[in-house]
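Let us practice reading a record.
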Amino acid sequence: MTMHNDELRLPSNDWRAYQGVLSRRVFAFILDYVIIALLWIPAAVVVFFLGILTLGLGFLLYPVLFALVAMLYFGVTVGGREQASPGMRMMGLAIARTDGRPMDFLTAIVHLVIFWIANALLTPLILLIGLFTDRSRLLHDLLIGTVTVRRESY
């Protein structure tokens, strides 16, 4: 399934495209953060040597390193051709914008940051929002204009 940047693809209006999406999103989240944690290890080693080379300045990256790895991970994967992170692909999901344009790197990062903010403010209530919205959309989906769909229906 290929998608070009000039191609508009509106998400499906069929209810079956959203059936079971909320539970799949939870498992995709867990898988993605395990992958990010594994990617954080070599990044931490690189920052260690960078810290030595910069006489300690590089060590200032450690507090934000996990967030930087996660932003790069989601920006490249969700903002890429597949429109899904590896965890989402394993769960058979993809993210679509409601205006039909493909996700890009910056939109994927904004989606992630709004998710982090909403999660910090509403945990564990963030998942309850999906039970009462159309197409099981969460708060950050509503704010940025995205929807998570099953890949076979998109």
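A brief commentary: The CA atoms of residues 26 and 104 lie 23 Å apart.
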